[in-house]
Amino acid sequence: MTTSDFSFSAPRALLNKLRLFLAAGATILIAAIFVAPPRGWSGILLGSYYLVSLGLAAIVFIALQYVSGASWGVALRRIPEAMTAAIPLGGVGILAVLFFYPEIYPWANAEVHNNLPAFKQLWLGLGFVRLRAIAYILLWIAFAFMLLRRSRRQDSDARFSHTRANIRISAMFIVVFAITFWLASVDWIMSLEPDWASTIFGMYTFAGLFVSGLASITLLSVWLQRRKPMNSIITHHHLHDCGKLIFAFSTFWMYLWFSQYMLIWYANLPEETGYYVHRLHGFWQPLFLLNLALNWVVPFFVLLPKRNKQNPDVLLRVSIALVVGHWLDLYLLIAPPIIGSQPRLGVWEIGCAATVVGVFGLSFFSAFKRVPVVPTGDPYLAESVEYHA
């Protein structure tokens, strides 16, 4: 296997469409900042958090492959590696919200902030929140850089020491990620309603992050499998394992969703139930139920049969449902306290979605074309390519 045998460039027509999505979406978002600031900035927060989530899910996938010694995913590794390019781009959006429109958070108002408990006043100090956000993003970028740098070096020298080093880096990343992402989800999402709290919120947002990341990896794998040179690398066995992971972690997401909802419903404490009361009335309720359907009902029942987990067309449709479902899940987390009693799905929200599609697609293909589509120097590549052969 030589490097020249494994190069890929996205079709020009696809790249032009992604550029059009980005240009149109960014123009709409900029207009929203001036015309409808709460909706514009909430869209930036949602889109940026979504991009960061996809990039982080990709690193988690890579790290778990390294620390578990799994070889089957080596053939797919360049897909999540390229997805990590979304982290700094999403991070810039998060910081833009915190620095230019912190009013999106109630605690940024001095009167509200002064009425919070002492610890929350300290933790939700605007300067401290900004400092933590910078630290989280820089840590995630640093770990992605270290993992990808050694993977790239291994292409040229094929030294096993790079694999050993990445195993150690991955183990450290998993610990750092568990702490920082939990805190970041509290800072950026849960604090939109500072009087409400959930002790499993970090786990819940991680479940959504990882399911959407797996769906994106699977969606891209199916798309690339139909094109050279990936059509000779990705097999239905690789897709089967992706399908099994999607099936498992969508159920994990549902378990955490139900645990959070059931405990709050059972306790029936006014300071907790208000979170769900808001989302179960008016036109929020259909979206609330659609969220469950997209993120669990569809993947669970469709992927129950083994043959469906190996069927590229089925996996493609389920992955799209989950990618849209995670967007809806984040919308239900972010929009109600900002927008009010009724959801608003209009041009501003469409612009936000178009921007994210453009940013993610262009950053992915830009990163993916720079290196061979498979890690040619990895000692487990042959084992992965011949998986179940």
Which key features would you list for this structure?
single chain, about 400 residues, mainly alpha, 16 helices, globular
Write the topology of this structure.
Elements: H1 12-35, H2 37-68, H3 78-83, H4 86-100, H5 110-114, H6 118-123, H7 126-157, H8 160-188, H9 201-225, H10 236-267, H11 270-279, H12 284-302, H13 306-309, H14 312-339, H15 347-368, H16 381-385
Helix pairs in contact: 1-2, 1-15, 2-4, 2-8, 2-9, 2-14, 2-15, 4-7, 7-8, 8-9, 9-10, 9-14, 10-12, 12-14
How would you characterize the overall build of this protein?
It is a single chain. Helix 2 (37-68) packs antiparallel against helix 4, helix 7 runs antiparallel to helix 8 (160-188) and helix 12 runs antiparallel to helix 14. The chain is globular. The protein is mainly alpha-helical and 389 residues long. The protein has 16 helices and no strands.
